[in-house]
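pinging the channel bc i need a second pair of eyes. not urgent but kinda urgent?? the chain im working w is below, pasted from the shared doc
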Amino acid sequence: MEAMKEPITVAPDVLAAVSNGEYHSPHDVLGPHIADQRITIRVLRKLADSVTLLTPFGEVPARHEYNGIWVATLEGTEIPDYQVCAVFGGSEAISADGYRFLPTVGEMDLYLFGEGRHEKLWQMLGAHLHSYDTSMGPVTGASFSVWAPNARAVRVVGDFNSWDGVASAMRTMGESGVWELFVPGASAGDRYKFEIQYADGSWHQKADPMARQTEVPPSTASVITISDFTWDDDAWLASRLERDPHTGPVSVYEVHLGSWRKGLGYKEVAEQLIGHVKYLGFTHVEFMPLAEHPFGPSWGYQVTSYYAPTARCGNPDELRYLINELHNAGIGVIMDWVPAHFPKDDWALAKFDGSPLYEDPNPLRGEHPDWGTLVFNYGRREVRNFLVANALYWCAEFHIDGLRVDAVASMLYLDYSREHGQWQPNIYGGRENLEAIAFLQETNATAYRNNPGIMMIAEESTSWSGVTAMTETGGLGFGLKWNMGWMNDTLRYLEEKPINRRWHHGELTFSLVYAFSEQFILPLSHDEVVHGKGSLYNKMPGDHWQKLAGVRLLYAYQWSHPGKQLLFMGQEFAQIDEWNEGKSLDWWLTDNPAHDGVMSCVKRLNEVYREHPALWADDFTNNGFEWIEMSDGDRNVLSYLRKAPGGDDQVAVVCNFSGIPQNDYRVGLPVAGEWKEIMNTDAVEYGGSGVGNLGMVSTEDVPWNGHEQSVLMQLPPYGVVYLTPNS
């Protein structure tokens, strides 16, 4: 094949833009192009002394054309395989030409993304490794694609090009706003960013919004990654398909991974965490946000890389290992997810292409005044797609069993934390954020459709109607909602001294007025034991013994109340100090018999809970609950029945919130005969005083509380007793 002298002509201003990495369509100039029975090949090799094309048919010298652009022409219309040999100061650098490869983003990908319906968006955008077989050998590298519709030009920089993006300018994919480039030689582990030219001509380095791995903070680059992890949790996933988690036993242990035990990564924490959770008997672990975030004290609630597990604890496959091992231990995994807002860091999502892209452009809607963060533009199809696909990503790629959606109330209301004049009503004149509502409905419906057996959980602090109602009937479509009212009322009541509790008895009973209006989880979460609120231990009045008894009382009441339950780490052994994310939990307390007793109490509560469907099988209708006595505020006592569907199992619960024993306290029961004491929080093994009923009570023909039968019970101080028929 002979070289020819006349290349396809390119205008000087275009050559100038290409040579500076500022042209929106560099593939129109660089790489091979056919016209008039000749092939023109241009490559950009700044500062090269010479450039030669290596082909199967021989070497073709290129001539310098303009500011680092070299050009060669070949005869014919069939583009040969070739490599580029550039000489710099006597050293040769041989590489494939990234501009000769077809786009790695397909037309259907672009169409679905434009419609906001690409359910595997992470397979389209971001960095992906590829290998191409050519006659001169395999070409390996990575394709990069990013959405930046308002950018003038986009380049990719990274370890693979010495962080000089001039020769790695990306092409725009029509009106989609997507930019794409294949870079030969880029490999797993390489760090990278996108250089984006704003409309004013300035350049800005941005982390990849779709990065699936990042550097360890405070470094901010994205990292090319590929998974070689082999899952073996098929049995878990198969069993998940066969059950409805919302109506099964759900007892959640909430974990901040960075401070459960400081210094442990995903793999290191696996054995210790799993052993602890299995011992305690929780059904699920809920991790506070695992997506990458720059500011550690945000606990993960200010996310910059929604598709990347935080590198503080290891790489993505190490997180897969942790989840796989939890599943194989029979423990479900819930993750906190934060689509409500994101931080303003200029290297991340904020004004990504020089314009409000991910954030709402309306200043009265685009920023959270309380948190100093930005609000997503839920009405933009591509942004909505970014978030919906992210929920699917964690379920598909990490086998997450549930997402707890943070700060839902802030998404639902346009006037959330805003004064008069600081917000605009919707098109109907209301305060509801219609776009956010539609986004939540779409996310829930799509997540449940794609992942049967998962749970979508709302942290929603208002009385918004239909949070857990089906989207078909206008609900938001969540499976469960945190019961913040129960939490606030219960803790406020327990903070009162027993002598004053008679005046606050309604705060306990009020939760049953609305207990079945939604499908609730009862949370005692991290939010209740931080920022000066004190630990659960310190919320209780009295001396050390009374505080520990109050904690055990709280848990037994929580475990028996309608709704699932969640407990934050450290509270299982009644940590004395409030949570501090900067240090490990006070594990030394478990060497103290009294604190270890609280942990034994939690363990027994979970055992009883799993064993008795009455405590979980009908949490969401009043068929599963019946008051025995709700009005004995003078003695600070509540009693009620929990019932399984069909009446096959029932548990009587008697709670003494006073600081003194209640001797010979009469309780009406629906079944004659012996009732077994299956739980007593005052048992000596839990650190209690041992007041109880010797393991059994027998009914008498004394009508009481609307029942024909009743028993005389000994109620321990600050204690809860569970009874079940001794069949």
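so The radius of gyration is 31 Å. and DSSP finds 16 helices and 35 strands in the chain. — does that match what u expected or am i reading it wrong
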